[in-house]
Amino acid sequence: MKDTSREACFISHGGELVKNKVKELRTVANLTQQQLADLVCVSSRTIISLEKGQYNPSIMLAYKIACVFNTTIEDLYDLKENLENEEKDI
């Protein structure tokens, strides 16, 4: 069953969406958006929105995507860089 809920999001303190490497890693892994969506049980529209920076995933979806690419959530979402950018905005 595909999860299409968008309740829990990674939103920075200032309310901005958090930059990610989903498209970059998906392309390197030679996966289509639909293939990635199937692997993490969401719609391809969710993957498209993630890649365009229009949507931040729940922590569980971020974890599932990180597992597909054998990386961490911190690396997948450049959390250190995003935190530094957020601190500059404060």
Give structural notes.
This protein has a single domain (22-89), classed as Orthogonal Bundle (434 Repressor (Amino-terminal Domain)), CATH 1.10.260. Helices cover 53% and strands 0% of the residues. The protein has helices at 22-28, 33-40, 44-51, 59-68, 73-76, 79-89. The longest helix is centred in the last third of the chain and has 11 residues, at 79-89. Residues 1-13 have low confidence and may be disordered.
The level 1 CATH classification is Mainly Alpha
CATH fold type: 434 Repressor (Amino-terminal Domain)
Unreliable segments of 5+ consecutive residues: 1-13
Could you give the order of the helices and strands?
A: HHHHHH
C-alpha geometry: globular
Helix content: 40-55%
What is the strand tally? 0
User: What would you report as the Rg, rounded to the nearest angstrom?
Assistant: 13 Å
Q: What is the CATH architecture descriptor?
A: Orthogonal Bundle
| Backbone structural class | mainly alpha
Major sheet size, sense and barrel closure = none
- Kindly report the name of the CATH homologous superfamily: lambda repressor-like DNA-binding domains
SS summary, helix count: 6
**Percentage beta strand:** under 5%
Distance from N terminus to C terminus (CA atoms, Å) equals: 40 Å
Keywords, separated by commas or semicolons:
53% helix, disordered N terminus
List the helices and strands and how they pair.
Layout lengths: L21 H7 L4 H8 L3 H8 L7 H10 L4 H4 L2 H11 L1
Helix pairs in contact: 2-3
What is the compact description of this entry?
The protein has one domain (22-89): lambda repressor-like DNA-binding domains (434 Repressor (Amino-terminal Domain), Orthogonal Bundle). 53% of the residues lie in helices and 0% in strands. With 90 residues, it is mostly helical.
